[in-house]
């Protein structure tokens, strides 16, 4: 099928200005730049840090209308920003590209970015503008999934866990057969997956999954970029067949809601305990406003801790349904207000389907904001907001594997040291009485990945050579 392979640029020219454009305009969220003023709860908070002690107490912080805006919403509502001397203007971003670029061009002081964006801005991966971005904490882990349309269901594709139940060790091969067979029957415009940003971990997950199943993602289908709130409509109008995005935009697609697709897999099923969003700033922000930055990180850690507590999650799920945040409220008047947001926050997650079967799975690790659930055996002192520099190295292996950079950077450790600031996190967390792991790097064991191939950050090039499907892979010739 390689003769049908288009570049992303060609595809966007061909379809992006027509059908996709129609979908984009038809489902735009009403303009709202964020919550205004202070809540009564926030006003009642006694500041621990005085604003006049900070170099820049008045800052603008972005967020994107997906479930992981929860810590930003909580920091605003509960007064964690105020507690640490910050006067924050929250600004809702249209996409993950604007969230990142708002930092680079100075419109935002801080903003969440997709995992990979910080490192890729440093290395200049495809689709990433060169910029000295930094992050000292993870906003959350997990909380995302892959949605496939009804036609893929009708063809016979099913949620990943059902392949595991039915085929055991042969699950990847069985899925690969069904996956390839479906796309082989589609015209060129019917072989499209969408993600939220080029060079994001979501793009890497889609490519990683398909390659693990023996399907070359560089040849069999194309990947396009679509903002989260526009995913569902663009599947409905046929502009794409599948997508990967954060909640609640997968839950919104299933039967009982929009009914246009089903969840194939959560991201945690591709790589367990993966980082999803990072709190990013420009390096100059840390240098010029060190006390302000420390206050910001403290406020966000406190908010993540609040979101992590089981007794708070219903409140969190309801808060983010506000139009200022996700705007994801059900149309049915008698439906629970958090029908769309609570599955990803509380953990009563439904994969959907079109056969009437209940595929709701309860799990404590559907979205991880701070405390790690018992199924994750992690180093002493670890928690979700701690950044592992070794995971940044993994992201660079994926940029290399898929040809977004020509070769793995020789100075990868130095890049990671400057961009994933575990040194700052430890110092800040220590002031809050929070212990942190003493190492920056850890081995990811085989059971963490869908293909059971572990990752040792001390040998990233050797790791890359283990994969037969990759960009610029050597070609083997055999005599007949």
UniProtKB/TrEMBL annotation:
<keyword id="KW-0472">Membrane</keyword>
<dbReference type="GO" id="GO:0006811">
    <property type="term" value="P:monoatomic ion transport"/>
</dbReference>
<keyword id="KW-1003">Cell membrane</keyword>
<protein>
    <submittedName>
        <fullName>ABC transporter substrate-binding protein</fullName>
    </submittedName>
</protein>
<comment type="similarity">
    <text>Belongs to the CmpA/NrtA family.</text>
</comment>
<dbReference type="InterPro" id="IPR006311">
    <property type="entry name" value="TAT_signal"/>
</dbReference>
<keyword id="KW-0813">Transport</keyword>
<dbReference type="GO" id="GO:0005886">
    <property type="term" value="C:plasma membrane"/>
</dbReference>
<keyword id="KW-0406">Ion transport</keyword>
<dbReference type="InterPro" id="IPR044527">
    <property type="entry name" value="NrtA/CpmA_ABC-bd_dom"/>
</dbReference>
<dbReference type="Pfam" id="PF13379">
    <property type="entry name" value="NMT1_2"/>
</dbReference>
<keyword id="KW-0997">Cell inner membrane</keyword>
């Amino acid at each position: 099928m390689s003769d049908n392979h288009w570049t992303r640029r060609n595809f966007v020219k061909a379809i992006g200005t027509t059908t996709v454009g129609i979908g984009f305009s038809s489902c735009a969220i009403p303009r709202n730049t964020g919550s205004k003023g202070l809540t009564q709860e926030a006003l009642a908070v006694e500041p621990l840090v005085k604003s006049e002690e900070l170099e820049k107490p008045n800052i603008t912080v972005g967020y994107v209308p997906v479930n992981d805006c929860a810590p930003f919403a909580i920091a605003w509502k509960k007064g964690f920003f105020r507690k640490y001397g910050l006067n924050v203007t929250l600004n809702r971003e249209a996409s993950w590209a604007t969230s990142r670029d708002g930092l680079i061009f100075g419109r935002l002081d801080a903003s969440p970015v997709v995992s990979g964006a910080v490192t890729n801005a440093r290395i200049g991966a495809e689709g990433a503008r060169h910029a000295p971005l930094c992050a000292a904490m993870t906003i959350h882990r997990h909380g995302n999934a892959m949605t496939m349309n009804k036609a893929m269901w009708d063809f016979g594709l099913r949620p990943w866990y059902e392949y595991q139940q039915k085929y055991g060790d042969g699950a990847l091969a069985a899925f690969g057969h069904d996956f390839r067979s479906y796309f082989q029957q589609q015209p060129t415009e019917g072989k499209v997956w969408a993600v939220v940003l080029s060079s994001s971990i979501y793009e890497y997950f889609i490519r990683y999954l398909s390659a693990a199943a023996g399907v070359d993602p560089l040849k069999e289908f194309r990947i396009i970029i679509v903002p989260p709130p526009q995913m569902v409509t663009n599947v409905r109008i046929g502009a794409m067949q599948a997508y990967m995005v954060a909640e609640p935009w997968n839950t919104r697609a299933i039967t009982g809601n929009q009914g246009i697709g089903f969840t194939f897999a959560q991201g945690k099923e591709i790589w367990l305990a993966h980082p999803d969003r990072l709190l990013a700033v420009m390096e100059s922000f840390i240098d010029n406003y060190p006390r302000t930055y420390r206050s910001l990180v403290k406020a966000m850690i406190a908010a993540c801790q609040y979101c992590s507590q089981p007794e708070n999650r219903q409140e969190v799920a309801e808060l983010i349904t506000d139009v200022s945040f996700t705007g994801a409220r059900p149309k049915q008047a008698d439906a629970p207000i958090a029908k769309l947001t609570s599955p990803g926050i509380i953990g009563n997650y439904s994969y959907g389907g079109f056969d009437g079967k209940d595929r709701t799975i309860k799990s404590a690790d559907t979205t991880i904001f701070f405390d790690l659930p018992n199924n994750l055996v992690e180093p002493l002192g670890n928690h979700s907001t701690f950044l592992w520099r070794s995971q940044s190295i993994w992201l660079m292996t994926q940029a290399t594997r898929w040809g977004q950079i020509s070769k793995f950077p020789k100075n990868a450790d130095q890049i990671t040291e400057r961009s994933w600031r575990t040194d700052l996190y430890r110092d800040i967390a220590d002031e809050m009485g929070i212990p942190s792991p003493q190492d920056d790097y850890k081995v990811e064991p085989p059971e963490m990945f869908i293909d059971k191939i572990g990752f040792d950050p001390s040998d990233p090039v050797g790791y890359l050579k283990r994969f037969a499907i990759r960009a610029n892979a050597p070609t083997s010739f055999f005599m007949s």
